């Protein structure tokens, strides 16, 4: 009987490196491709450009591939135990870094039944990551971009969102990565939050719906030009219903993925003032009608409208928030955001206990600015599906800039501020293409 060779791949963008390894594998026996599912890929890198079924079809038609099977985790163990291939083949680029743990498990499993690991030289000069990045920018059309949030919500238990307020902070959210020392997977933000507080503050203006939609759209365009991740817009109160129906279509056309609007009326004040300022809640039926009209106005099913509940901010309690949540979801809201400025997170937990009893599979958003002692996975246990870190790039940049400004004033020169600055060489090459 012909021997079996197992090769695991995610292969979103297929290149000669993949073909090389399949060719090598075919010399040892029948090649079985363990194709990573979209969910498995999303645990360690971005959502694939092509979905599982499309990638499967491609692989089934590649020469020398005899079978394509699903691999639903990064870990090969389950498939190896089931299929007992004689060989596992992989490029020799996985001996270090995040993949080394996966590799060790493969070696241990193969040992249990006498299988063998074959490592072939990694095909140089082709980097999947580079190709993917180029491809991502090329396919960064409004249609593709808009869909990404819904896709992510379907693939991941929860998504992590970070404030982006201009091109540069957009690039930080797009590119920041850390390796999780426990799971050895790479973590990055899933999406961007265009905050009204941050957009206004970067422009030196108060967060009272003074920065108009034209200006907000300029910010969005600036971010969109240089990034590819989905965008969630803080739409404040959404304004008048007659304006809202136009505005959602404009945002949808641009490729924004979602808007969150809050159920307040009158001159909007930032929620984190709580009851220190006048916070007037909108009549829930009027707000529900605005949501309904917004949903009706849309041209696609990809653009999401979330209803933001301000009952806890206005001191109206959990039951008021529940009553409103029901009305807004009935009106067609795609999910809710429950906001609170309390530090202990108790009222959010109390709300979620009631909410979870009544609603299943409704996306819930938290903005844990004041209760940030809880981790994303803890908040997910309470029921959050989207967690927004709403203002942290702005809040960390401001003190750093003020310190530098004062240091220069104090010394009458900038030498002493050097230690707070990245070098000229670094700043010149920070954005590729400048040279
Ligand atoms: C924002 O980021 O502008 C928000 C969240 O609306 S909060 O500031 O907490 O109200
Ligand atoms: Mg806001």
Share of β-strand residues = 15-25%
How does CATH name the architecture of the largest domain?
Answer: Alpha-Beta Barrel
Q: Can you summarize the main beta sheet?
A: 8 strands, parallel, barrel
Which ligands accompany this protein? sulfopyruvate, magnesium ion
Trace the largest sheet across and list its strands: 6-9-10-11-14-15-16-17
Descriptive overview:
- It is a single chain.
- With 435 residues, the chain is an alpha/beta fold.
- The chain folds into 3 domains: 4-129, 3-Layer(aba) Sandwich (Rossmann fold), CATH 3.40.50; 141-390, Phosphoenolpyruvate-binding domains (TIM Barrel, Alpha-Beta Barrel); 396-430, no CATH class.
- 44% of the residues lie in helices and 17% in strands.
- It has 17 helices and 17 strands.
- The chain has helices at residues 16-26, 38-44, 52-60, 77-83, 100-113, 128-138, 142-155, 167-175, 196-202, 213-226, 241-254, 284-297, 317-330, 346-358, 376-382, 392-411, 424-430; strands at 4-9, 30-36, 65-71, 87-91, 116-120, 159-163, 178-179, 186-187, 191-194, 231-234, 258-262, 264-265, 280-281, 304-309, 335-338, 364-366, 386-389.
- An 8-stranded parallel β-barrel has the order 6-9-10-11-14-15-16-17, surrounded by 8 helices. It has a 5-stranded parallel sheet with strand order 3-2-1-4-5, with helices on both faces. A two-stranded antiparallel ribbon has the order 7-8.
- The longest helix has 20 residues, at 392-411.
- The protein is globular and about 80 Å long.
- The mean pLDDT is 94.
- Residues 195-197, 234, 236 line the site of magnesium ion.
């Amino acid at each position: 009987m012909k021997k079996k060779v197992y090769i695991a791949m995610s292969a979103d963008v297929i290149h000669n490196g993949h073909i090389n390894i399949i060719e090598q594998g075919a010399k040892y026996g029948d090649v079985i491709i363990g194709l990573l599912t979209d969910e498995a890929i999303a645990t360690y890198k971005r959502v694939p450009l092509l979905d599982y079924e499309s990638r499967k079809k491609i692989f089934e038609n590649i020469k020398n591939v005899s079978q394509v099977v699903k691999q639903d985790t990064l870990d090969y163990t389950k498939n190896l135990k089931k299929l007992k291939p004689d060989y596992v083949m992989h490029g020799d680029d996985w001996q270090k870094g995040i993949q080394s743990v996966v590799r060790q498990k493969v070696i241990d499993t193969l040992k249990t039944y006498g299988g063998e690991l074959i490592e072939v030289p990694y095909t140089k000069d082709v980097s999947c990551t580079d190709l993917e990045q180029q491809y991502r920018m090329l396919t960064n059309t409004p249609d593709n971009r808009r869909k990404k949030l819904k896709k992510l919500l379907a693939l991941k238990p929860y998504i992590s969102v970070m404030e982006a307020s201009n091109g540069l902070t957009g690039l930080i959210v797009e590119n920041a990565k850390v390796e999780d020392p426990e799971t050895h997977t790479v973590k990055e933000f899933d999406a961007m939050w265009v905050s009204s507080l941050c957009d206004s503050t970067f422009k030196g203006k108060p967060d009272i719906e003074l920065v108009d939609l034209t200006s907000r759209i300029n910010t969005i365009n600036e971010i969109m030009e240089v990034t590819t991740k989905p965008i969630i817009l803080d739409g404040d109160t959404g304004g008048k219903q007659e304006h809202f129906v136009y505005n959602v279509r404009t945002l949808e056309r641009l490729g924004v993925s979602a808007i969150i609007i809050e159920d307040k009326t009158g001159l909007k004040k930032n929620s984190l003032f709580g009851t220190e300022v006048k916070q007037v809640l909108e009549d829930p039926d009027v707000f529900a009608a605005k949501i309904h009209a917004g949903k009706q106005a849309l041209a696609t099913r990809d653009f999401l409208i979330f209803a933001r509940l301000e009952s806890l901010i206005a001191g109206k309690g959990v039951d008021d928030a529940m009553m409103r949540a029901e009305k807004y979801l009935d009106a067609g809201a795609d999910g809710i955001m429950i906001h609170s400025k309390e530090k202990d997170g108790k009222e959010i937990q109390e709300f979620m206990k009631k909410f979870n009893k009544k609603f299943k599979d409704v996306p819930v958003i938290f903005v844990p600015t004041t209760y940030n002692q809880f981790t994303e996975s803890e908040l997910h246990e309470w029921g959050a599906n989207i967690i927004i870190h709403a203002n942290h790039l702005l809040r960390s940049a401001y003190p750093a800039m003020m310190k530098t400004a004062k240091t220069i004033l104090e010394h009458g020169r900038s030498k002493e501020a050097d230690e707070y600055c990245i070098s000229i060489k670094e700043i010149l090459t920070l954005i590729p293409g400048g040279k």
